[in-house]
Amino acid sequence: MGRPSQEAEFLAKERRGRAAKWFALGAGALAAGGAALWWDGQRISDDLGARFRAGDLGAADGPRYGRARRESIAGRAMVAGAAVLGAAAVALWW
């Protein structure tokens, strides 16, 4: 009486399996978006670094530094979030 029936166990496992697929899909999307932001932030940072070495920076380039920093931080946070969602998907799948 204290133990759930086999049918209830099967349904619970099936629901966790469906949820795991959505968690994995979310993790993949979050990782892709985060990687794109991280890459773009690094690209802008590299461009600004090259312009600095060439002595070609102006006051108008200030906002680009902020953008590069924000995108890099946001991208890293999204990739970290994707790792957490991926771990949750594995835990649910198991």
Give an overview in words.
Helices cover 85% and strands 0% of the residues. The model has no long low-confidence stretch (mean pLDDT 90). It has one domain (24-93). The longest helix is centred in the N-terminal third of the chain and has 48 residues, at 6-53. The chain is built from 2 helices and no strands. With 94 residues, it is mainly alpha-helical.
Radius of gyration (CA) equals 22 Å
Question: Helices and strands: which structural class?
Answer: mainly alpha
Please give the share of residues in helix: over 70%
- Please give the count of helices: 2
**Order of helical and strand elements:** HH
What number is the mean pLDDT? 90
Shape: rod-shaped
Low-confidence stretches: none
Strand content: under 5%
User: How many strands in all?
Assistant: 0
For the record, the count of structural domains works out to 1
Major sheet attributes: none
The end-to-end span amounts to 25 Å
